[in-house]
Amino acid sequence: MTVELGKQAPDFTLQASNGENVSLSDFKGKNVVLYFYPKDMTPGCTTEACDFRDNHKSFEELDAVILGVSPDPVDRHEKFIDKHDLPFLLLADEDHKVAEDFDVWKLKKKFR
User: Fold this and answer.
1) Which position among 45, 81, 86, 90 bears the catalytic label?
2) From the first residue on, what is the mean pLDDT of each consecutive set of 10 residues in the chain (112 residues)?
3) 35 assigned to some structural domain
4) Which terminal residue of the chain has fewer beta carbons within 10 Å of its beta carbon, N or C?
């Protein structure tokens, strides 16, 4: 399934870096920035997370919540958050089902 612009995103529940189960529907009425990334602690993913961190205040002013989703387990998310002082939740999609539901889980291809 591909989520279309302007359509309501499908609800899901995942374990969050705060140890709680979090559902997308928990944020009904708020703007949600839902971003998917492949792995904690990698250079590109760290740059992306730190950019969200550095602009977190601007997102809050827009009543927006940032949620990062990757297949890493919660304990790895906690280390990533601690190391980079991330002020938002990271969600553990260990079986990448949610990423598949949003059609963002893709086979990695080598660049030529």
Assistant:
1) 45
2) 73 96 94 94 94 97 96 96 97 95 79 57
3) yes
4) C
Nearest of 60, 61, 33 to residue 49 by alpha carbon:
33
Query: Are the C-beta atoms of residues 69 and 90 closer than 8 Å to each other?
Result: yes
What's the pTM value of the predicted model, to 2 decimals? 0.90
Number of folded domains that form the chain? 1
Q: Which helix (H) or strand (E) holds 35?
A: strand 31-36
* 50 assigned to active site: no
Give the pLDDT confidence score for residue 25 in this predicted structure. 96
DSSP calls for 50-89: HHHHHTHHHHHHTTEEEEEEESS-HHHHHHHHHHHT--SE
Give the containing element (helix H, strand E) for 99: helix 97-101
In a domain, 73, yes or no: yes
**DSSP-assigned letter for residue 105:** -
Residue 5 lies in a domain: no
